[in-house]
Amino acid sequence: WNVxxxxxxxxxxxxxxxxxxxxxxxxxxxxHKIKEGKAGKIIQxxxxxxxxxxxxxxxxxxxxxxxxxxxxxxxxxxxxxxxxIHGYVTTQSSGFYLTGVYGTHTIAxxxxxxxxxxxxxNAVTExxxxxxxxxxxxxxxxxxxxxxxxxGEVQDFKKFMETASMIGMKCLGRRYTWTNGHIHRKIxxxxxxxxxxxxxxxxxxxxxxxxxxxxxxxxxxxxxRQNSGQKSFKFFNHIAEHPDFIGVVRKGWRGITYPTMxxxxxxxxxxxxxxxKLNTKEFKGVIERVNQKRKQLINLQGLMxxxxxxxxxxxxxxxxxxxxxxxxxxxERQLFLISLQxxxxxxQQMIIMNILCFDMSLYFTGxxxxxxxxxxxxx
Length: 379
Prior knowledge:
CATH architecture of the largest domain: 4-Layer Sandwich
Protein name: Endonuclease/exonuclease/phosphatase
Strand content: 15-25%
Number of domains: 2
CATH superfamily of the largest domain: Endonuclease/exonuclease/phosphatase
Number of strands: 15
CATH class of the largest domain: Alpha Beta
Strand order of the largest sheet: 4-5-6-7-13-9
Oligomer: single chain
Helix content: 40-55%
Number of helices: 10
Order of helices and strands: HEHEEEEEHEEHEEEEEHEEHHHHH
Distance between the termini: 64 Å
InterPro entries: Endo/exonu/phosph_ase_sf (IPR036691)
Radius of gyration: 27 Å
Shape: globular
Low-confidence stretches: 224-229, 366-379
């Protein structure tokens, strides 16, 4: 996905939500515009403990990241080039080569990427998939609006497809992958080799809505079917910082008292339900407003898949993006303030809280009395 910059907070939030919403396992990120010194912190903020490989060593701007969730897939780096990163992906049930490509804007500079990719693809006998923004169309109908496509613009791309025996994956969704509101181009591609087609002929790609970018994300299913059962319970730190949290836990822990692990299990289930209610009450309204704005933008961008409608709706899309950015920034501030207020309220509670003898004995458990000045047995 060519994200066209990830420096702004609202884009980082949307990127994180995109990965969660689509259950992303591995992602090629292009033109992120993040300096090397800031990359680690921003990646951690967006995707947590995911792993990453970049090409800062070959291009100071490091236009390419490949990010992956190590709990779902593994990625072994093979070739790091100024315009692409190539490596091997291992999933739970299979493996394949993946190449993430960002082709530069000039025909002369792109000649290096065609040469490098031809060498890589000819050396591969296993399934191979290329996720790319080539900055180039392949056919004359790959552009709507603006100047007509000239043969010189596409001949290198066509030659590569023939020499490397690559095939464009059939994709659902939009026809064009980039637009400025007036001109539409298909320049983002999913390409595969013949081995991939023989093994996974049924797999189709998807051209998704661009959200905050002017490029559509392109995706494909890995094929490892995930269990689609009930959503697992997730515990977030901001819940523990709420002043009612301790009371909720105490309330849930009362009642059932089996003298075995069954009692612990039953009480934990009660606590989980109460914590979910607390989280919904305090935070759902804040998040729903952002989800509503996001849905409005996605629906509008769906209408813009028709180039004739896109020009008419371009200003509306711009306004929707501004509204979504504003809502995300408000959400981030509100969640921060709620968290800060809860911490302060909880701290004040702790300052004036009565300390029971039982609590004191728990705090001092394991301390050597003879080595602890000022602590006596008179509790």
